[in-house]
Here is the input.
Amino acid sequence: MKKMMSIILSLMLLLGCVSAVAEAAETEAPAKVPLGTVSINGAFTLQCGIPEGYTPRPLIATSDLIIASLTAEDPEKPVMYLSVAFDETYADVERMNDLDADALDLLEKTYLENDPSIEISYGATGLGTTLLIARQSEKVPHYIDFLSIYKGYFVEFILMNSEAAQDRTLTEEELMMAVDFLTELDFIEADEAAVRAQAEANSVIGIARITACDAEKKTVTAVIKTPLIMEKDQVEAALEEKHIYLGEDGDVEITVVKEEENTIEINNEYYLTLQDNGTYIVRSIYDDAAVLITMYDEMEFELAPDVVFLDYIDPESLESLEEPTTHTIEEFAAMVKSEGTDSVGPGFAVDNVNVTIDENRKITSIERVYVPWQ
Here is the structure.
């Protein structure tokens, strides 16, 4: 069992953290908020109703885990946390209602081993889904933890007193508010577009310096970099302190500053351009290339099963191609080995490869592009 309780409670002790119980729904209720899409053992988009006076905030949303918080405008009201996490051990369990007494006893023990003072009882959502309810009324902060299962996903919801009211007894009315939330929590079957959008949201694109590719192991060894992006307050602090961190160029003293609309020029060497989202991207005046920082330093990455290599460069003429040539991983591995040893082609070690890395740190796409310095 992927026990989220200990993780959630640890977070809660720092800033408050919880998990939730979910419910399948046939119809989409109005005024519900989407929390994310899970896609293990079926693809589902989670959506929930919001209790009056509360604001939801997704914290984590991956293919097998969603964690969200709900905080109240009133600091005296309890905070709530929802966790939906897939556990392959329970992949064949449709609902907690399907578990026998021994299986329920095993779940109870996972709570009692962590906290022998809690009280365990059972209840149900308004739709009849069984809820294991663990209540802590002796130690602070007081909390009530609800646990259920839906299609192999542990759905855990924690109702916990706020920092302002840690020793207050949670009321039956508040308990019913949590049960109502879980009753209205929907697992909506997700289409391919929703799954793809979720995957893209959790993927990052990096600039790679590839040193090896093993076609049998389906791995690539590379340094992965990303353009240096700075928040507005970081730029303001750098200008005030007259020092700026510029990735591989290190910490640079700022001696000359020229500010124009949406652009800040530094030392006649770099310029910072304001983007639509309010951040600044840092570029070199010399070649207009983005200043890079290292995300992963010389490590081995697993390749996704369907990854392909797209080459936008003619290896012989070194000219850019309008339409890329497509290669298998076996062909790509041979090119990495050949171009890295006898200088045939532009190579893969001059930051001329874009890779997409998914939430599991697997490379899902590789593109070699033309750069003027190759």
Summary: The helical segments are 5-14, 101-114, 172-183, 192-201, 232-241, 329-342. The mean pLDDT is 84.
